[in-house]
């Protein structure tokens, strides 16, 4: 790896003195488009890793709200002493998906206190309203609830009192609190007062102000960064959590829909995956379930791309497989998911979708079968899925895994088998150092144009790992920008692409680098975020060839380029990467019968220091700079900054 990096550095150094004398000439064949670009070319990969869902985009502030963690009291602290039997965790198997509850027996009217620590604390904002809620079953009436928001110094910064009904059976109650201060590491106190006995469950705290102000919804600032990308698709739920460490802990979509209080919590497979980043309090409550995923995709204008388990657990863990004669339930899950997304309200699953608030279909068009699975055991199971899905739903494109790596014996076997099978879309993943991305810009130039499409489902340029928030560097992002020129130039083959993973919590990450970093109050995009955002917001409809000396621009003298035409905006869009330490002057000769307006838009991401990154303290240290420019004549002459990625938009 060090050798590749050294070679790349030498190439950059040797090229850096070439540009001071004369412009580099490029030909842009506007009148000879090379193919169409998928409308959902650039999208989002979501996985509940790095506290991406619970503790992240799902705005719940209470950890272990239903006492279902392996350790029922995890996240909770008892503030007062009480006689044995006063506070009990009761496991009632009759309660679907959520058997445990807290039984409070207080015949003497003691003041009983509980405190929840949240997910690395609770992000509380001054002046914001928070909704506290719970489920309760009053066995002996007489208890009442008082709740408090606390800051880091245990000062009360918001409070409310809640009366409980004397009616029998499980019911809900809620109260609102207004925060008088901002706290990044707040806590919640729950005081239980009065004489009586009651069971409590789903003890919850949400900000009232969520994405689209949906009750108990998503964190608004995190969703906004996704919406700002204008993504073409949203892949979910991953990622390795699709597989699970074993089949018992695989992601099962049917357990994530319906009433939230009935959704069955499981351990998150990233809980113990990395010894250097153990996260024993990481579980999946599925408050953010498949219905919410479909809804989010619709909100941000993205095609839903669900990935389902194919009857195989993670092959890096147990490698469990379901026997072929027991694969039917897995295939039925796929059929039922299509019914949930697209079926009429007269069907079982379409009816549930309507009951949850969305009678209209979600218009699902693609479905992934398996994630990073490999070997003949995967091909055998995939063929069983394909046979049934194509018979019953030929309108659904099937996405299949090409394994964990973009080359090697495993990849070659899968690529050959998937092409022979006539699969619709092959999902390729690349986690590699910057030198690999720079050298792979021509990867798809010679791919079979009549074969399956390619989904660049997980890409990320890695420097030193494990690294954390500060290592989502400009070096990584610029190498990705260079590689993405190759994806765009070959958009007739590459139909989708997404960076992975999406989110990382600065206090709770397991894997890095990540596209977006958050803490309990703040969120920022990395340089890689800004690179993909520029591609996504400027994707175009047609591939326009751009060449230097009759060849695609794939790294000659450390320069990379692609071009597209946007039919809707009537714009020619040129993307250019200068991976040199010196500025480069370029002359783009646009071969077109049509003329363009002299005014154009130039957007630049640049920094002379490849190791710079954004941070909570400097969230916009690397950000696009947009300016209006004028080009005269039939050519575009422009100077590109050292280590820069530039987008030029010409209106024709």
TrEMBL record:
Catalytic activity: Hydrolysis of terminal non-reducing alpha-L-arabinofuranoside residues in alpha-L-arabinosides
Family annotation (SUPFAM superfamilies): (Trans)glycosidases, Glycosyl hydrolase domain
Record domain Alpha-L-arabinofuranosidase C-terminal: where: 457-644
GO biological process, one term: L-arabinose metabolic process
Claim: Glycoprotein is one of the keywords in the record: yes
Signal peptide per UniProt: 1-20
Pfam families, sorted: Alpha-L-AF_C, ASD1_dom
EC number: 3.2.1.55
Enzyme class: hydrolase
A Gene Ontology molecular function term of the record: alpha-L-arabinofuranosidase activity
The entry's keywords: Glycoprotein, Hydrolase, Signal
InterPro entries: Alpha-L-AF_C (IPR010720), ASD1_cat (IPR055235), GH (IPR017853), Glyco_hydro_b (IPR013780), Glycosyl_Hydrolase_51 (IPR051563)
Family: Belongs to the glycosyl hydrolase 51 family.
Protein's name according to its UniProt entry: non-reducing end alpha-L-arabinofuranosidase
Organism listed in the record: Sphingobacterium allocomposti
């Amino acid at each position: 790896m060090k050798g590749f990096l050294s070679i790349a550095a030498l190439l950059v150094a040797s090229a850096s003195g070439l540009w001071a004398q004369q412009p580099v000439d490029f030909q842009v064949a506007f009148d000879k488009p090379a193919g169409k670009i998928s409308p959902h070319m650039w999208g989002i990969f979501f996985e509940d890793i790095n506290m991406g869902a619970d503790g992240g985009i799902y705005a719940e502030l209470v950890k272990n709200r239903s006492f279902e963690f392996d350790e029922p009291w995890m996240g909770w602290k008892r503030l007062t002493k009480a006689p044995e039997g006063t506070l009990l965790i009761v496991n009632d198997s009759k309660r679907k998906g959520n058997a445990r509850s807290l039984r409070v027996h207080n015949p003497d009217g003691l003041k009983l206190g509980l405190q929840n620590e949240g997910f690395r604390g609770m992000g509380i904002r001054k002046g914001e309203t928070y909704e506290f809620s719970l489920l309760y079953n009053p066995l002996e009436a007489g208890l009442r609830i008082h709740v408090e928001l606390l800051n880091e110094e245990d000062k009360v910064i918001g409070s409310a009192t809640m009366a409980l009904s004397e009616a029998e059976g499980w019911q809900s109650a809620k109260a609102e609190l207004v925060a008088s201060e901002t706290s990044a590491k707040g806590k919640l106190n729950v005081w239980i007062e009065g004489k009586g006995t009651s069971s409590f469950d789903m003890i919850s705290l949400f900000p009232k102000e969520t994405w689209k102000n949906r009750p108990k919804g998503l964190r608004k600032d995190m969703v906004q960064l996704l919406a700002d990308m204008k993504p073409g698709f949203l892949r979910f739920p991953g990622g390795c959590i699709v597989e699970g460490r074993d089949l018992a802990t695989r992601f099962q979509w049917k357990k994530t829909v319906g009433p939230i209080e009935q959704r069955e919590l499981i351990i998150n497979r990233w809980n113990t995956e990395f010894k250097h980043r153990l996260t024993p309090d990481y579980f999946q409550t599925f408050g953010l379930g498949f219905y919410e995923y479909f809804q989010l995709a619709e909100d941000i204008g993205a095609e839903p791309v669900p990935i389902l388990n194919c009857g195989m657990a993670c092959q890096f863990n147990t490698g469990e497989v379901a026997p072929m004669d027991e694969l039917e339930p897995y295939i039925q899950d796929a059929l039922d998911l299509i019914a949930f997304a697209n079926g009429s309200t007269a069907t079982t699953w379409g009816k549930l979708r309507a009951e949850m608030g969305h009678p209209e279909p979600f218009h699902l068009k693609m479905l992934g079968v398996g994630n990073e699975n490999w070997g003949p055991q995967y091909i055998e199971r995939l063929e069983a899925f394909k046979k049934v899905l194509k018979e019953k739903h030929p309108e659904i494109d099937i996405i299949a895994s090409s394994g964990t790596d973009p080359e090697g014996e495993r990849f070659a076997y899968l690529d050959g088998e998937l092409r022979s099978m006539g699969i619709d879309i092959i999902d390729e993943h690349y986690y590699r150092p910057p030198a690999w991305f720079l050298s792979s810009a021509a990867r798809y130039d010679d791919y079979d144009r009549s074969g399956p499409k390619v989904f660049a489902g997980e890409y990320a340029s890695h420097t030193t790992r494990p690294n954390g928030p500060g290592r989502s560097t400009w070096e990584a992002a610029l190498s990705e920008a260079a590689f993405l020129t190759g994806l765009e130039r070959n958009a007739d083959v590459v139909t989708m692409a997404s960076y992975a993973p999406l989110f990382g919590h600065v206090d709770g990450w397991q894997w890095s680098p990540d596209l977006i970093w958050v803490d309990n109050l703040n969120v920022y995009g990395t340089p890689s975020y800004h690179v993909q955002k520029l591609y996504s917001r400027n994707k175009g409809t047609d591939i326009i060839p751009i060449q230097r000396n009759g060849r695609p621009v794939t790294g000659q003298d450390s320069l990379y380029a692609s071009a597209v035409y946007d039919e809707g905006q009537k714009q020619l869009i040129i993307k250019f990467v200068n991976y040199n330490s010196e500025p480069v002057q370029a002359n783009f000769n646009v071969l077109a019968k049509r003329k363009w307006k002299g005014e154009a838009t130039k957007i630049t991401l640049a920094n002379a220091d490849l190791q710079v990154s954004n941070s909570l303290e400097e969230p916009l240290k690397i950000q696009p700079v947009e300016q209006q420019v004028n080009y005269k004549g039939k050519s575009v002459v422009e100077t590109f900054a050292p280590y820069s990625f530039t987008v030029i938009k010409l209106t024709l």
